[in-house]
Specification:
It is built from twelve helices and nine strands. By secondary structure, the chain is of the alpha/beta class. It has a seven-stranded mixed beta sheet with strand order 4-3-2-5-6-9-8, with helices on both faces. It has a two-stranded antiparallel ribbon with strand order 1-7. Bound molecules: S-adenosylmethionine.
Length: about 270
């Protein structure tokens, strides 16, 4: 497992405090809850293009897996989308300010401030649990998140999750970096873990879950990021977008996927 670091000058708050502050600011700086949600209310279905949605819907339906948990729900797009699809979703996030805003806007929905490593739901509460880009944020590793996911899932329930992918392309690029670019410096603090397929499979298995599928996703975003960071091109510029679209659909997933998605299942244990 590889560690990513982030520059942060105010390194005196706790890990949880930093994560809450970082994401609260991130959601505010990228438009706030209302604007971010509004982007999804448009004439075409943005979720239809999302790799996470295309994979998730193969395994569950509102009749077979009705009660879902979104661990690290951010500004709530996924909760709203899946509620509209006929599921009943509870969204949990460590950012209290973001959750308060969601509760104010959607009093009939289930949004709750909390830490996904220690939630207040009874055992076996959910038919499915999805979490995008959240389990990797703690330096102690993924196990506290995975064991809590195991606890709240019903037997036979699915865990869908994404973590940053330690792809072949990234490992290759790392060879050309100087040690100061790859190791932590004083002004940097731990940001996230990056995992290979084998490492994520091991983590899930250690947590008692059966691995159903592992798939690198977000190839297009990787190309756009490379063009932005390497050549200073605008993220939203036409050239970056079209190059990302073309290269992202032809290059192998293992080379340039940015995130790694896992589908895992809590086994149904024979009690006889
Ligand atoms: C990468 S964002 C993903 C947001 C959303 N799931 C999405 O796909 O747009 C990670 C989110 O997880 C939340 N988070 C991080 N650690 C958490 C924890 N221990 N418990 C609950 N939420 C957490 C952050 O506040 C942030 O909103």
């Amino acid at each position: 497992m590889r560690k990513d670091y982030i520059s942060d000058t105010s390194i005196d708050d706790s890990e949880s405090g930093f994560i809450e502050r970082f994401w609260t600011d991130n959601w505010k700086n990228t438009g706030g809850v209302e604007n971010r949600l509004n982007r999804y209310i448009s004439s075409f279905d943005r979720f239809a293009l999302k790799s996470e949605w295309r994979l998730l819907r193969k395994y569950i339906s509102p009749t077979s897996h009705h009660r879902l948990l979104d661990g690290g729900c951010g500004t709530g797009e996924w909760c709203r989308h899946l509620n509209n699809q006929g599921y009943s979703v509870t969204g949990v996030d460590i950012s209290r300010e973001t959750i308060e805003k969601l509760q104010e806007l959607f009093p009939d929905d289930a949004f709750q401030a909390g830490d996904i490593r220690n939630m207040n739901f009874p055992d076996e509460s959910f038919d499915g649990y999805f979490s995008w880009g959240t389990f990797e944020h703690f330096e102690a590793g993924l196990q506290p998140c995975i064991s809590e996911a195991y606890r709240v899932l019903k037997p036979g329930g699915y865990l869908f999750m994404t973590v940053p992918f330690d792809s072949f392309g990234l490992s290759f690029a790392q060879i050309f970096k100087t040690p100061s670019q790859t190791s932590a410096r004083n002004s940097k603090r731990f940001y996230q873990w990056r995992l290979s397929r084998q490492e994520l499979a091991t983590e899930l298995t250690l947590g008692g879950l059966d691995v159903v599928k592992l798939q690198p996703i977000h190839r297009r975003q990787t190309i756009v990021r490379m063009l932005h960071h390497g050549f200073g091109l605008d993220y939203n510029g036409r050239f970056a977008r079209y190059t990302g679209l073309v290269l992202g659909s032809i290059l192998p997933r293992g080379l340039c996927g940015h995130m790694l998605m896992a589908v895992a299942r809590k086994p149904i244990l024979d009690k006889s």
